Amino acid sequence: MSEALRQFEAVVxxxxxxxxxxxxxxxxxxxxxxxxxxEERVPSAAVAPDAVEQVQQIVRIAGKYKxxxxxxxxxxxLGYGGSRRTPSGTVVLDLKRMNRIIEVNDKNHYAxxxxxVSYFDLYRHIQERGLKVWIDxxxxxxxxxxxxxxERGGGYTPMRDHFDCHCGMEVVLANGDVxxxxxxxxxxxxxxxxxxxxxxxxxxxxxxxxxxxxxxKMGFWLLPEPEAYFxxxxxxxxxxxxxxxxxIFARLLNxxxxxGTTSVLKTVDFGPPDPQLAxxxxxxxxxxxxxxVAQKGLGYWTLDxxxxxPSKVIAAQWEHAxxxxxxxxxxxxxxxxxxxxxxxxxxxxxxxxPRSAWNPEPHHVCDRRSVQPGxxxxxxxxxxxxxRGARSDQGVRAGLSRSRIADRRASWSADLVVSxxxxxxxxxxxxSSTISRxxxxxxxxxxxxxxxxxxxxxxxxxxHTAFMDDIAEAYSYNNHALRRLHETLKDALDxxxxxxxxxxxVWPKRLRRxxx
Amino acid sequence: MSEALRQFEAVVxxxxxxxxxxxxxxxxxxxxxxxxxxEERVPSAAVAPDAVEQVQQIVRIAGKYKxxxxxxxxxxxLGYGGSRRTPSGTVVLDLKRMNRIIEVNDKNHYAxxxxxVSYFDLYRHIQERGLKVWIDxxxxxxxxxxxxxxERGGGYTPMRDHFDCHCGMEVVLANGDVxxxxxxxxxxxxxxxxxxxxxxxxxxxxxxxxxxxxxxKMGFWLLPEPEAYFxxxxxxxxxxxxxxxxxIFARLLNxxxxxGTTSVLKTVDFGPPDPQLAxxxxxxxxxxxxxxVAQKGLGYWTLDxxxxxPSKVIAAQWEHAxxxxxxxxxxxxxxxxxxxxxxxxxxxxxxxxPRSAWNPEPHHVCDRRSVQPGxxxxxxxxxxxxxRGARSDQGVRAGLSRSRIADRRASWSADLVVSxxxxxxxxxxxxSSTISRxxxxxxxxxxxxxxxxxxxxxxxxxxHTAFMDDIAEAYSYNNHALRRLHETLKDALDxxxxxxxxxxxVWPKRLRRxxx
Lengths: 516, 516
Fold this sequence. Notes:
34% helix, globular, 18 helices, five-stranded antiparallel beta sheet, alpha+beta, homodimer
């Protein structure tokens, strides 16, 4: 190890190799579900290259000394393990210094960036130049575009599937080779960020949620700045209305009439705070709750539809949507926020708190998060059961009951995030109000949730590093054929097993037995 | 070989193994650019399994005897090599009998099918049941949904990127193992056709345009039947207007205001037949042609914008589009076809010939093709230079000049197919009016086009099997790093090199030297 660190220093300079306890401590996962328990793993050192060539050299050195590398870029990855967990002796490969914005094109609407570029960085770059494109930030704007997309994060605008909206990669393989995918394999390619596939097998996907390479550049499609945004609210009175609500909504989404992401919320759980409600809820039946929301002039379920585009088109889309939802007896509609772009600084300041998550201005996104600071909120995202449930009515209903598994044993919440062509992901978060509650018991509940979900045919799409094997275990069709395929690829691409061993349940050969 | 054929017979039955000259002749490529030349390769035999388990057994037998398999499904693959080319002794693995439509869901808008299912089959299935979903056929409706998507074919509706609109695969690997990708790796998955990625590395892409496995099932997203279709025509008067036309169009596409595929056509090349024009064209300058089209009340460039959705929304979208294009002096607009759905049989019959390619009713799509029969038309699709050029204005212009490379040496045509988030693919087709012209000279021109394109940073996205190595050769960044990665994957997944050796330029180890 010490020899490897010396060689890393020769590549990146002494000041960019970190091995003191003080420095390495910064790479710990502040919200580890094993915090202060023996299972908490801490990296041994970190190295921060500035260029692709340095990444190539680092990977080669790591291969020579069989030192595992855990790649991170920028952002905090809170809830998903921060920079950590892997066999002891791991070195964090920290790409934060590779933060170049190589191109932003507002005629063909794309960007090409390095891993250290955050949503904030790209947003500022665009604002400073007055370019007419929008980014699609997830809730926290401090994260890496590349990191978020590779882990299959999402945002709120029509570009919300960040991995699907990428176009072209540059990847350093474990052997130190640099590959460009898609049209990037053509020297001097003119269309690297315009056409995804290139010629022959399309390899990009295998570098997402994986440990097959180190992505050093990635292209992203951007949304042309829309003329307007409008939010229309749909409220339906009965619990059973969820079925019709979701069916109509799916049709609008899959037709492209609604293009963003939104949530179906149970008003009594997510509506405005109301002391009266607390009293009503004790022992309340469904019909009690239906009566309560009716008295308040609210719906049992609330759905905010986001629209982006020319004002005239939005007006027609909202009118069409209202016609469709009018099949549900007792449905109510409300016009919500309405903006035309570009917003002035003053107009931005007037957007009420918590500011809309859709807002592509990341400082708001950050505000939204920062109004609820403290570990318990972060923990809400933590051993986060991001489960892909079915969007069918049964799926929605069962998704809700499923959330009840945990309801007497920990604080929790569930909402239905529905976005185009994705199932209702019933995102169950743990809201634990004290730190002491977040350890053993919650881990146990979380593992039960994974199993209960799998029994229903649902699976998680990402998780904290601590639970990756648990979730990979559930994807077991044909005696884990997909995992065996992943392992075949891992052995071919990283025979020494130096890249992020165990990430997403994929272990290199020499450590596979340890998993079992 | 004879022992292998006997074992194939034991798996699928004697009647589904073909080895007589008469039978095998049907698997020849009727439009081979090497037809009747010594280079034309003909398969040795064919085997047609009926089920996944039979595919597994066939692959294992082929592995044992090191017999190359070339997988086809249904359709003709005209222009792209039919069933052919590979080392001698190849057996065609013909999946046409696996033609089950496993599920069509018109609430969540997807289908799950086997490789032998054609667009016709799925269309009829949907019509017979009155389901409210549309398929997205490419020009010929006889092809396989799976075959077309794996080769990255496209259609005309918002679901036009067939590979991107797939969701979930079942694949038989060279070792006979069956893998289900995405959520399908979860036993009893409820969301296999709803969420693409599942958990961990996303492998689907590596089975497209590849020889890494045999895809035996695939899910596809479908478009909910729209309320209406409308086509609006934009005509601009000057050759130089192409730049503004494409820029505005790109913004509309990338904003989702226009959701289908369309073409920018040069009126003098693609307008209605006109004997007067033939006279004008001889030695005509650009300004002559501009004057000519102006006199005719036409535009120099013509763009038909397709709209799908609620009538009110379409009206607003078209109005917005007209406002945007009004920046171009002298622009003209015409309202084109307008339909509301479902169409009656009578209304369908009234659609003028050639019937719209957008029409999701494949019998029309077929009509469109069948009105121009004969090899010369098919040859128009043949050594088809499907080049991904840049959508930037320079790209468009250069794409046009580039087409001129060939113009004195063969009949040709070029149009610009522009679809959302794709570059203008300047699709250059050879139109050769006699069979004799389609051999040596055209091959030579085609190879020159590949090189000329690569020098400009453009590359082909698919081609006839005869030119796969030529095109793979152009994707040479970093000493062919991507091809070396493809080869690493090939060696890991198919060490005996039995699956479609050489497909898309990916050869197994033992045949790699032959390529060089």
